[in-house]
């Protein structure tokens, strides 16, 4: 066995590349004999920065690897200093000068950078900058819940907002209408996409920055929380030459993440892959990605029509918002394409009925739809501070667990989880495979209940079952599952 770890394995372990990408690169290496690192770079799977980092760190331990780190929290003295410095400047001159808004030496620029970095360290998906009566409140959304950050003096609102607008290439002079902007932000070798939105409210402009971490998306289904048996079933569906695979759930339930993870598993040089999205959230190598642009006339429907003339094999339609898009997507699946999309439905079975309700012929639905994944995200108990529930806790009875063989946990809170008791999230889902029996039921326009009963007879497990399983495994709590799954538990 090799005495030293190979570069491909190290990159894989550290999440820089996926198994699928490694395979593509190894395949390429067989043909060209080039160094694996340069092939990965050439294919665009990895940045030069990341490559250098890994090459130079091969002797060090993997603590250096990017990923979620200890929150470590804000360094108060440093922030205080920047706030003081910035305040002093904006005391003197109400007008903002270009250098203060754009120079790397400006305390204001550094302050805004700190605000963002604090969010990234905490694992925030969104940073909120709220004008408040007494000052500027910074808040971070972590695992779906808002947490407090620092509080800045009121006089810093306009400078901070202006700096953020400069980053997002937005209009600083316009403060009365909402604006959208975007920026790239580098932190510890990670390229993060910032989507910035401003909205005028009483007291100033409210800013929300969505942080998209491209390096976090291409993770395997296992780390998203899918269980082994189900991963096998998903793999079967992904191996299909054509048909439709849908991921459904409310806003922010992880649909896009799951879909990208699917696509990265079939991402290969031999299949022509297209996406039409609103907006494109992550870059997929070897796929041609298009962004909806309604003003220019590029909608999901028109985009999909054009894609069909581009000789595609695999198509991702970001969302089926209207019946025209749904109809086109179904027809694409019928004519030999593997089509992926999302819908905002609550569960897998009602998705079928939604499609026929918006006017898609049941026969088309039944002959194209292969698999529906309905999902939610549940917060994961912080491993550092979770505590066993007392033996007489009603939760044991509620889920029919025997406390002699089973320990359930409750959240407490510590420094590592920002006192929330939870750290990270996991997917709670149900997977419906459209088999012959269900196909017949769709054709005969059967009710949701009839379809569900038939599915259950064939081994379909609802979302609450996976939820309870994860409660029994001590991953999350009963309350958490109850709060996201509507069926009574
Ligand atoms: N399985 C998962 N485990 C942990 N975190 C996840 C998982 N799936 C998604 N997330 C995180 O949850 C957030 C929302 O995910 P995502 O954008 O995929 O949701 P969505 O359903 O597509 O949302 P929208 O309806 O806004 O398009 C992201 O920050 C993502 O990183
Ligand atoms: Mg999405
Ligand atoms: Zn904790």
Structural overview:
The protein contains 21 helices and 15 strands. The protein has 489 residues and is of the alpha/beta class. The strands form three sheets. A seven-stranded mixed beta sheet has the order 9-8-10-11-7-12-15, sandwiched between helices. The chain has a six-stranded antiparallel beta sheet with strand order 3-2-1-6-5-4. A hairpin with a 2-residue loop joins strand 2 and strand 3. The longest helix has 17 residues. The protein is globular and about 75 Å long. About 3% of the residues have low confidence. The site of zinc ion has 8 residues, from loops.
Question: What is the gist of this entry?
Answer:
The protein is of the alpha/beta class.
Outline the fold blueprint.
Blueprint: H1 7-13, H2 19-32, H3 36-42, H4 48-56, H5 76-92, H6 98-102, H7 107-122, E1 124-131, E2 135-142, E3 145-153, H8 157-167, E4 179-187, E5 190-201, E6 204-213, H9 214-217, H10 221-224, H11 228-238, E7 243-248, H12 255-266, E8 273-277, E9 287-291, H13 300-307, E10 314-317, H14 323-334, E11 338-343, H15 348-357, H16 362-368, E12 369-381, E13 387-388, H17 394-398, E14 409-410, E15 422-433, H18 436-443, H19 448-457, H20 463-472, H21 478-484
Parallel strand pairs: 7-11, 7-12, 8-9, 8-10, 10-11
Antiparallel strand pairs: 1-2, 1-6, 2-3, 4-5, 5-6, 12-15, 13-14
Helix pairs in contact: 5-7, 7-8, 13-14, 14-16, 16-18, 18-19
